[in-house]
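user: Please supply your own:

assistant:
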Amino acid sequence: MTDLLRLPAETIHAAELAALAAADDGPRPAGWLLSPRSVVTYMIGGDASGTPIAPKYVGDRRLIETAVATIATDRALLLLGVPGTAKSWVSEHLAAAISGDSGLVIQCTAGTDENQIRYGWNYAQLLAHGPSRDALVPTPLMRAMEAGKVCRMEELTRMGSDVQDTLITVLSEKMMPVPELNTAVNARRGFNLIATANHRDKGVNELSSALKRRFNVVVLPLPADMEQEIAIVTRRVGEMAAGLDLPAPKNVAEEVARVVAIFRELRNGQTGDGKVSLKTPSGSLSTAEAIAVMMGGLSHAAYFNGGTLSAEGVAPNMIGAIVKDPVQDKVVLEEYLETVMKKRSDYADYYAALAGLV
Protein backbone atom coordinates (compact mmCIF):
# COMPACT_ATOMS: atom_id res chain seq x y z
CA MET A 1 0.00 0.00 0.00
CA THR A 2 1.29 3.46 -0.85
CA ASP A 3 0.10 7.01 -0.39
CA LEU A 4 1.36 7.96 -3.85
CA LEU A 5 -1.43 8.88 -6.24
CA ARG A 6 0.23 7.19 -9.20
CA LEU A 7 3.19 4.83 -9.44
CA PRO A 8 5.38 4.52 -12.56
CA ALA A 9 4.74 1.61 -14.88
CA GLU A 10 8.01 -0.13 -13.97
CA THR A 11 6.96 -0.19 -10.32
CA ILE A 12 3.38 -1.33 -10.86
CA HIS A 13 4.44 -4.12 -13.20
CA ALA A 14 7.78 -4.97 -11.59
CA ALA A 15 6.83 -8.64 -11.13
CA GLU A 16 5.90 -9.02 -14.80
CA LEU A 17 9.11 -7.33 -15.95
CA ALA A 18 11.19 -9.54 -13.64
CA ALA A 19 9.47 -12.69 -14.92
CA LEU A 20 10.02 -11.66 -18.53
CA ALA A 21 13.69 -10.89 -17.86
CA ALA A 22 14.23 -14.26 -16.13
CA ALA A 23 12.67 -16.18 -19.03
CA ASP A 24 14.20 -14.01 -21.75
CA ASP A 25 16.79 -15.81 -23.86
CA GLY A 26 16.47 -13.61 -26.94
CA PRO A 27 19.08 -11.16 -28.21
CA ARG A 28 18.92 -7.79 -26.48
CA PRO A 29 20.06 -4.52 -28.04
CA ALA A 30 22.75 -2.77 -26.03
CA GLY A 31 21.27 -1.01 -23.00
CA TRP A 32 17.94 -2.87 -23.14
CA LEU A 33 16.58 -4.77 -20.14
CA LEU A 34 14.52 -7.10 -22.33
CA SER A 35 14.74 -8.45 -25.86
CA PRO A 36 12.44 -6.84 -28.42
CA ARG A 37 10.28 -9.96 -28.48
CA SER A 38 9.80 -9.82 -24.70
CA VAL A 39 9.00 -6.10 -24.88
CA VAL A 40 6.20 -6.91 -27.32
CA THR A 41 4.94 -9.66 -25.00
CA TYR A 42 4.91 -7.15 -22.13
CA MET A 43 2.89 -4.72 -24.25
CA ILE A 44 0.46 -7.15 -25.89
CA GLY A 45 0.20 -9.72 -23.09
CA GLY A 46 1.12 -13.38 -22.85
CA ASP A 47 3.02 -15.69 -20.55
CA ALA A 48 6.52 -15.76 -19.06
CA SER A 49 7.32 -19.22 -17.65
CA GLY A 50 3.93 -19.47 -15.98
CA THR A 51 3.62 -15.82 -15.00
CA PRO A 52 0.66 -14.22 -16.81
CA ILE A 53 1.49 -10.93 -18.53
CA ALA A 54 -1.47 -8.55 -18.71
CA PRO A 55 -1.89 -6.64 -21.99
CA LYS A 56 -0.95 -2.97 -21.79
CA TYR A 57 -2.16 -2.19 -25.30
CA VAL A 58 -5.17 -3.78 -26.97
CA GLY A 59 -4.87 -3.48 -30.71
CA ASP A 60 -2.83 -4.52 -33.73
CA ARG A 61 0.29 -6.41 -32.61
CA ARG A 62 2.12 -5.27 -35.73
CA LEU A 63 1.95 -1.64 -34.62
CA ILE A 64 3.76 -2.48 -31.39
CA GLU A 65 6.28 -4.66 -33.22
CA THR A 66 7.00 -1.78 -35.59
CA ALA A 67 7.39 0.64 -32.68
CA VAL A 68 9.77 -1.69 -30.81
CA ALA A 69 11.80 -2.46 -33.94
CA THR A 70 12.16 1.28 -34.55
CA ILE A 71 13.50 1.98 -31.06
CA ALA A 72 16.03 -0.83 -31.54
CA THR A 73 17.56 1.19 -34.41
CA ASP A 74 19.06 4.68 -34.27
CA ARG A 75 15.81 6.17 -35.55
CA ALA A 76 13.46 7.96 -33.15
CA LEU A 77 9.80 6.94 -32.80
CA LEU A 78 6.80 9.26 -33.21
CA LEU A 79 3.47 7.93 -31.97
CA LEU A 80 0.77 9.81 -33.84
CA GLY A 81 -2.99 9.76 -33.39
CA VAL A 82 -6.04 11.67 -32.26
CA PRO A 83 -6.36 12.43 -28.54
CA GLY A 84 -7.18 9.41 -26.43
CA THR A 85 -5.54 6.68 -28.53
CA ALA A 86 -3.15 5.65 -25.69
CA LYS A 87 -0.06 7.34 -27.14
CA SER A 88 1.29 8.43 -23.75
CA TRP A 89 0.30 5.09 -22.22
CA VAL A 90 2.22 3.18 -24.90
CA SER A 91 5.29 5.43 -24.65
CA GLU A 92 5.40 5.05 -20.86
CA HIS A 93 5.21 1.27 -20.97
CA LEU A 94 7.72 0.99 -23.81
CA ALA A 95 10.21 3.07 -21.81
CA ALA A 96 9.54 0.96 -18.70
CA ALA A 97 10.14 -2.31 -20.52
CA ILE A 98 13.19 -1.15 -22.46
CA SER A 99 15.01 1.04 -19.94
CA GLY A 100 13.32 0.26 -16.64
CA ASP A 101 12.74 4.00 -16.26
CA SER A 102 9.67 5.76 -17.67
CA GLY A 103 10.35 8.99 -15.77
CA LEU A 104 12.71 10.62 -18.26
CA VAL A 105 9.93 12.66 -19.80
CA ILE A 106 9.51 16.20 -21.16
CA GLN A 107 5.99 17.59 -21.40
CA CYS A 108 6.01 19.92 -24.39
CA THR A 109 3.90 23.06 -24.30
CA ALA A 110 3.70 26.38 -26.12
CA GLY A 111 6.00 27.77 -23.41
CA THR A 112 8.71 25.10 -23.69
CA ASP A 113 12.07 26.62 -24.57
CA GLU A 114 15.49 25.27 -25.53
CA ASN A 115 16.72 25.19 -21.93
CA GLN A 116 14.02 22.65 -21.08
CA ILE A 117 15.09 20.47 -23.98
CA ARG A 118 18.89 20.72 -23.94
CA TYR A 119 20.16 21.90 -20.54
CA GLY A 120 19.91 24.76 -18.09
CA TRP A 121 22.17 26.43 -15.56
CA ASN A 122 22.36 26.75 -11.80
CA TYR A 123 22.82 30.51 -11.79
CA ALA A 124 24.22 30.65 -8.26
CA GLN A 125 26.99 28.24 -9.31
CA LEU A 126 27.39 30.01 -12.62
CA LEU A 127 27.92 33.42 -11.04
CA ALA A 128 30.18 32.09 -8.31
CA HIS A 129 32.44 29.83 -10.37
CA GLY A 130 31.68 30.46 -14.02
CA PRO A 131 30.58 27.86 -16.57
CA SER A 132 31.33 24.34 -15.34
CA ARG A 133 29.78 20.91 -15.37
CA ASP A 134 28.68 21.42 -11.76
CA ALA A 135 26.72 24.52 -12.79
CA LEU A 136 24.98 22.72 -15.65
CA VAL A 137 21.46 21.39 -14.99
CA PRO A 138 20.76 18.38 -17.22
CA THR A 139 17.32 17.89 -18.73
CA PRO A 140 15.64 14.46 -18.97
CA LEU A 141 16.90 14.30 -22.57
CA MET A 142 20.52 14.86 -21.54
CA ARG A 143 20.21 12.38 -18.68
CA ALA A 144 18.79 9.77 -21.05
CA MET A 145 21.70 10.30 -23.43
CA GLU A 146 24.25 9.92 -20.65
CA ALA A 147 22.57 6.82 -19.18
CA GLY A 148 21.72 5.12 -22.47
CA LYS A 149 17.98 5.13 -21.79
CA VAL A 150 14.76 6.07 -23.57
CA CYS A 151 13.53 9.65 -23.26
CA ARG A 152 9.86 10.49 -23.76
CA MET A 153 8.57 13.76 -25.22
CA GLU A 154 4.83 14.26 -24.84
CA GLU A 155 2.87 16.38 -27.34
CA LEU A 156 5.90 17.26 -29.44
CA THR A 157 3.93 19.49 -31.81
CA ARG A 158 2.72 21.73 -28.97
CA MET A 159 6.07 23.51 -28.72
CA GLY A 160 7.37 25.97 -31.29
CA SER A 161 9.04 24.81 -34.48
CA ASP A 162 12.30 26.57 -33.63
CA VAL A 163 12.48 24.67 -30.33
CA GLN A 164 11.56 21.39 -32.03
CA ASP A 165 14.53 21.76 -34.35
CA THR A 166 16.98 21.69 -31.43
CA LEU A 167 16.42 17.93 -31.59
CA ILE A 168 17.90 17.59 -35.06
CA THR A 169 21.52 17.46 -33.89
CA VAL A 170 20.67 15.03 -31.09
CA LEU A 171 18.82 12.68 -33.42
CA SER A 172 21.29 12.97 -36.29
CA GLU A 173 24.64 13.02 -34.51
CA LYS A 174 23.61 11.35 -31.23
CA MET A 175 25.34 14.15 -29.36
CA MET A 176 24.41 17.42 -27.69
CA PRO A 177 26.89 20.30 -28.02
CA VAL A 178 27.62 22.34 -24.88
CA PRO A 179 29.45 25.31 -26.42
CA GLU A 180 29.78 27.12 -23.08
CA LEU A 181 32.08 24.31 -21.90
CA ASN A 182 33.62 23.66 -25.32
CA THR A 183 32.44 20.06 -25.14
CA ALA A 184 29.52 17.81 -26.02
CA VAL A 185 27.47 15.06 -24.42
CA ASN A 186 27.54 11.89 -26.49
CA ALA A 187 24.70 9.41 -26.27
CA ARG A 188 25.40 5.95 -24.94
CA ARG A 189 24.04 2.87 -26.67
CA GLY A 190 20.47 2.25 -25.60
CA PHE A 191 19.46 5.89 -25.94
CA ASN A 192 16.49 6.75 -28.10
CA LEU A 193 13.54 9.09 -28.18
CA ILE A 194 9.81 8.35 -28.15
CA ALA A 195 7.65 11.36 -29.01
CA THR A 196 3.88 11.66 -29.13
CA ALA A 197 1.74 14.07 -31.13
CA ASN A 198 -1.81 14.45 -32.34
CA HIS A 199 -3.11 16.18 -35.43
CA ARG A 200 -6.46 17.40 -34.10
CA ASP A 201 -5.15 19.65 -31.35
CA LYS A 202 -5.50 23.40 -31.73
CA GLY A 203 -2.17 25.20 -31.64
CA VAL A 204 -0.24 22.45 -33.39
CA ASN A 205 3.18 23.41 -34.79
CA GLU A 206 4.04 21.23 -37.76
CA LEU A 207 7.36 19.41 -37.67
CA SER A 208 9.95 20.63 -40.14
CA SER A 209 10.79 18.23 -42.97
CA ALA A 210 14.31 17.87 -41.55
CA LEU A 211 12.96 16.75 -38.19
CA LYS A 212 10.30 14.49 -39.70
CA ARG A 213 13.01 12.52 -41.47
CA ARG A 214 14.56 11.66 -38.10
CA PHE A 215 11.36 9.92 -36.92
CA ASN A 216 9.59 6.74 -37.88
CA VAL A 217 5.86 7.42 -37.49
CA VAL A 218 3.47 4.84 -36.03
CA VAL A 219 -0.19 5.86 -36.11
CA LEU A 220 -2.28 4.55 -33.21
CA PRO A 221 -5.94 4.33 -34.27
CA LEU A 222 -9.08 4.39 -32.20
CA PRO A 223 -10.46 0.86 -31.59
CA ALA A 224 -12.28 -0.27 -34.70
CA ASP A 225 -14.29 -2.92 -32.89
CA MET A 226 -16.95 -1.93 -30.35
CA GLU A 227 -16.44 -5.02 -28.19
CA GLN A 228 -12.72 -4.32 -28.08
CA GLU A 229 -13.33 -0.73 -26.99
CA ILE A 230 -15.77 -1.85 -24.30
CA ALA A 231 -13.18 -4.33 -23.01
CA ILE A 232 -10.49 -1.63 -22.89
CA VAL A 233 -12.70 0.83 -21.01
CA THR A 234 -13.98 -1.79 -18.59
CA ARG A 235 -10.49 -3.01 -17.72
CA ARG A 236 -8.99 0.45 -17.28
CA VAL A 237 -11.95 1.64 -15.21
CA GLY A 238 -11.52 -1.39 -12.98
CA GLU A 239 -7.80 -0.74 -12.54
CA MET A 240 -8.26 2.95 -11.83
CA ALA A 241 -11.17 2.36 -9.45
CA ALA A 242 -9.06 -0.11 -7.46
CA GLY A 243 -6.23 2.43 -7.26
CA LEU A 244 -8.62 5.07 -5.91
CA ASP A 245 -10.42 2.66 -3.56
CA LEU A 246 -13.70 3.21 -5.38
CA PRO A 247 -16.16 0.30 -5.20
CA ALA A 248 -17.22 -1.14 -8.56
CA PRO A 249 -21.00 -1.63 -8.80
CA LYS A 250 -22.27 -4.77 -10.53
CA ASN A 251 -23.60 -2.82 -13.51
CA VAL A 252 -20.27 -1.20 -14.51
CA ALA A 253 -19.91 -3.30 -17.67
CA GLU A 254 -23.49 -2.51 -18.72
CA GLU A 255 -23.00 1.24 -18.28
CA VAL A 256 -19.64 1.13 -20.06
CA ALA A 257 -21.32 -0.53 -23.05
CA ARG A 258 -24.00 2.18 -23.24
CA VAL A 259 -21.53 5.06 -22.91
CA VAL A 260 -19.20 3.57 -25.53
CA ALA A 261 -22.13 3.01 -27.92
CA ILE A 262 -23.19 6.66 -27.61
CA PHE A 263 -19.63 7.91 -28.08
CA ARG A 264 -19.00 5.72 -31.11
CA GLU A 265 -22.19 6.84 -32.86
CA LEU A 266 -21.42 10.52 -32.32
CA ARG A 267 -17.77 10.00 -33.26
CA ASN A 268 -18.59 8.10 -36.46
CA GLY A 269 -21.42 10.41 -37.53
CA GLN A 270 -23.99 7.64 -37.85
CA THR A 271 -25.97 5.19 -35.75
CA GLY A 272 -24.60 1.73 -35.14
CA ASP A 273 -26.83 0.21 -37.82
CA GLY A 274 -25.78 2.88 -40.31
CA LYS A 275 -29.38 3.98 -40.98
CA VAL A 276 -29.21 7.50 -39.53
CA SER A 277 -26.54 10.09 -40.30
CA LEU A 278 -25.49 12.34 -37.45
CA LYS A 279 -23.55 15.53 -36.96
CA THR A 280 -20.23 15.01 -35.20
CA PRO A 281 -19.09 17.08 -32.22
CA SER A 282 -15.84 19.04 -32.19
CA GLY A 283 -14.21 16.75 -29.60
CA SER A 284 -12.70 13.35 -30.33
CA LEU A 285 -14.93 11.31 -27.95
CA SER A 286 -12.04 8.88 -27.64
CA THR A 287 -11.62 5.78 -25.52
CA ALA A 288 -9.82 7.92 -22.95
CA GLU A 289 -12.83 10.23 -22.75
CA ALA A 290 -15.11 7.25 -22.11
CA ILE A 291 -12.82 6.10 -19.31
CA ALA A 292 -12.87 9.57 -17.73
CA VAL A 293 -16.67 9.71 -17.96
CA MET A 294 -17.04 6.34 -16.24
CA MET A 295 -14.58 7.28 -13.49
CA GLY A 296 -16.61 10.42 -12.82
CA GLY A 297 -19.73 8.29 -12.65
CA LEU A 298 -18.11 5.82 -10.23
CA SER A 299 -16.97 8.65 -7.97
CA HIS A 300 -20.45 10.15 -7.96
CA ALA A 301 -21.98 6.76 -7.20
CA ALA A 302 -19.61 6.10 -4.31
CA TYR A 303 -19.90 9.46 -2.59
CA PHE A 304 -23.33 10.80 -3.50
CA ASN A 305 -25.58 7.96 -4.66
CA GLY A 306 -25.16 5.20 -2.10
CA GLY A 307 -22.90 3.15 -4.37
CA THR A 308 -25.47 2.96 -7.17
CA LEU A 309 -24.14 3.69 -10.66
CA SER A 310 -26.88 5.33 -12.73
CA ALA A 311 -27.46 7.48 -15.79
CA GLU A 312 -28.09 10.46 -13.51
CA GLY A 313 -24.55 10.21 -12.18
CA VAL A 314 -22.87 9.47 -15.51
CA ALA A 315 -24.73 12.01 -17.68
CA PRO A 316 -23.13 15.21 -16.29
CA ASN A 317 -19.70 13.79 -17.12
CA MET A 318 -20.89 12.91 -20.62
CA ILE A 319 -22.02 16.51 -21.16
CA GLY A 320 -18.50 17.70 -20.33
CA ALA A 321 -16.98 15.23 -22.81
CA ILE A 322 -19.40 15.91 -25.68
CA VAL A 323 -20.07 19.65 -25.42
CA LYS A 324 -16.63 21.21 -25.92
CA ASP A 325 -18.07 24.03 -28.03
CA PRO A 326 -21.10 25.43 -26.16
CA VAL A 327 -22.86 26.43 -29.38
CA GLN A 328 -21.97 23.87 -32.05
CA ASP A 329 -21.74 20.79 -29.84
CA LYS A 330 -24.94 21.60 -27.98
CA VAL A 331 -26.83 21.48 -31.28
CA VAL A 332 -25.16 18.18 -32.14
CA LEU A 333 -26.18 16.61 -28.84
CA GLU A 334 -29.74 17.94 -28.95
CA GLU A 335 -30.22 16.52 -32.45
CA TYR A 336 -28.86 13.14 -31.33
CA LEU A 337 -31.15 13.05 -28.30
CA GLU A 338 -34.29 13.83 -30.30
CA THR A 339 -33.65 11.80 -33.45
CA VAL A 340 -31.96 8.73 -31.96
CA MET A 341 -31.94 8.32 -28.20
CA LYS A 342 -35.55 9.37 -27.61
CA LYS A 343 -36.70 6.37 -29.67
CA ARG A 344 -34.71 3.82 -27.67
CA SER A 345 -36.52 2.49 -24.63
CA ASP A 346 -33.33 0.97 -23.20
CA TYR A 347 -31.73 4.44 -23.16
CA ALA A 348 -34.70 6.25 -21.62
CA ASP A 349 -32.79 7.04 -18.44
CA TYR A 350 -29.88 8.55 -20.40
CA TYR A 351 -32.28 10.54 -22.57
CA ALA A 352 -34.00 11.99 -19.53
CA ALA A 353 -30.75 12.77 -17.73
CA LEU A 354 -29.00 14.34 -20.73
CA ALA A 355 -32.05 16.27 -21.95
CA GLY A 356 -32.39 17.82 -18.56
CA LEU A 357 -28.80 19.06 -18.68
CA VAL A 358 -28.50 20.39 -22.23
About this structure: The first strand starts at residue 46 and ends at 48.
